[in-house]
Structure to design on (290 residues):
């Protein structure tokens, strides 16, 4: 079966981000800022730039309220105050957020086991049986190009795909930090397996949190299929699909960085400032002088 090209994306932020405590006791990790935009907004914008029409954000019960407020509250009092002060142009970034395509925020199904596959499974009712869809982990940001757009273009080239996963080449000596891709057919770029954090990586291609999936994945995102550490893993489901169907690997054009821990969050923030803010030169000067 050939599935329809994606128009929907599931973005996940349903964990508790214990490496960021105490701040994530109150604020979802993907609401931490890069410049004046939260990480989640950058992931949403990547999807919007690729033509995605509907986004489902999967959050914790506490995070759901915060994401609903951020993407849906019209903040009329703030706009009125800025208008009165003659600073209404400062409200333009808020209007941009409010004008995004349809965004629905849901809670992760609490009956599912822990693991990054459970937020995806929680959004099953939003996905039609005949359509492919995007899954994006909000831990990951992509600079310079939309990985979501790359995946959608790859789907047009491979309508037989049961899934397509994003990949980035990394230095070989660092591959023990990532999920290393093993290819079934190098010329066709089809997946055999993903080997997590191994000192004997089968390639220098690292898998990261951008996937084009089909409803086939829900057959395997089931509590009876828990894997390492008793968790439900999206990667496990994808490799099960690869056993009988074509899962393609797409080397994306942008630069992927993770925000999954404080160190890499800081590096991602620095990359953001370098790319988007004119005060980067002041930061370079400060670092040089101190």
């Amino acid at each position: 079966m050939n599935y329809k090209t994606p128009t929907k994306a599931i973005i996940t932020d349903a964990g508790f981000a214990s490496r960021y405590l105490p701040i994530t006791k109150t604020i979802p990790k993907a609401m931490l800022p890069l410049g004046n935009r939260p990480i989640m907004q950058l992931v949403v914008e990547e999807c919007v730039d690729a033509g995605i029409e509907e986004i489902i954000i999967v959050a914790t019960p506490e995070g759901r309220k915060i994401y609903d407020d951020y993407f849906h509250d019209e903040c009329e009092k703030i706009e009125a105050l800025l208008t009165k002060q003659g600073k209404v142009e400062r409200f333009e970034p808020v209007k941009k957020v409010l004008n995004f395509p349809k965004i629905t925020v849901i809670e992760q199904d609490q009956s599912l086991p822990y693991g990054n596959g459970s937020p995806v499974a929680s959004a099953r009712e939003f996905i039609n049986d005949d359509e492919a869809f995007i899954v994006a982990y909000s831990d990951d940001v992509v600079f310079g190009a939309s990985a979501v757009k790359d995946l959608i273009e790859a789907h047009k080239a491979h309508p037989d795909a049961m899934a397509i996963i994003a990949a980035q080449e990394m230095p070989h000596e660092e591959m023990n930090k990532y999920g290393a891709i093993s290819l079934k057919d190098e010329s066709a770029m089809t997946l055999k397996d993903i080997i997590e954090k191994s000192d004997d990586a089968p390639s220098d291609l690292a898998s990261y949190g951008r996937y084009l999936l089909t409803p086939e994945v829900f057959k395997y995102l089931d509590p009876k299929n828990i894997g390492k550490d008793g968790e439900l893993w999206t990667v496990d489901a994808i490799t099960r699909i690869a056993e009988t169907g074509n899962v393609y690997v797409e080397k994306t054009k942008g630069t992927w960085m993770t925000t999954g821990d404080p160190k890499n969050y800081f590096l991602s923030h620095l990359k953001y400032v370098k790319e988007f803010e004119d005060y980067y030169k002041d930061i370079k000067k400060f670092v040089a002088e101190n």
In short: The chain has one domain: 8-289. The domain at 8-289 is CATH 3.90.550.10 (Spore Coat Polysaccharide Biosynthesis Protein SpsA; Chain A). The longest helix spans residues 262-276.
